[in-house]
Specification:
With 150 residues, the protein is α+β, with helices and mostly antiparallel strands. Helices cover 24% and strands 40% of the residues.
């Protein structure tokens, strides 16, 4: 059994405060990540549907740590697909928000994947979600993106 890790770094042309808000405010999360209500508070549990194709996957876990404008650590206890098939268990995700010239860089490190297939699926999913988020900052006029299939 192996322990695979996913590492992603993305640049966003918005300030650290605004980008962080898109990770902790339910109304902003609904624009790019989930259809579910979320209340990101350290220790708070969550259950959310990931914005994907019809029959979205569902993540259940808790927020381990939230440091305003700095980082968020989430712990997914289980992720299932639309049919209830378990995709992953016990995955830790750490998002760091790093101010840079002209915007903010996000570093995402996810640990705990049992195999390469799990890690690749999660990396693809987060690349897609972060692209949706980036599109919000590049298309301020719409303020909403339709759910995309992948």
């Amino acid at each position: 059994m192996s322990n695979q890790t996913v590492r992603l770094i993305r640049f966003f042309s918005t300030d650290q405060k605004n980008l962080f808000a898109h990770f902790i405010q339910s109304n902003l999360l609904k624009k790019w990540m989930t259809t579910s209500e979320m209340n990101p508070v350290a220790g708070q549990t969550y259950r959310y549907e990931v914005l994907t194709k019809p029959g979205a996957s569902v993540c259940v876990g808790h927020f381990k740590e939230i440091k305003t404008y700095s980082h968020i650590v989430m712990y997914d206890l289980i992720t299932t697909d639309a049919d209830g098939k378990v995709l992953t268990t016990n995955i830790e995700s750490k998002f760091e928000f790093i101010p840079t010239s002209g915007g903010t860089r996000i570093s995402l490190v996810q640990t705990g994947f049992l195999n390469t297939e799990e890690a690749n699926r999660s990396e693809f999913s987060w690349q897609h979600r972060l692209s949706r988020l980036n599109a919000l900052f590049n298309d301020e006029s719409s303020g909403h993106l339709e759910s995309a299939n992948y």
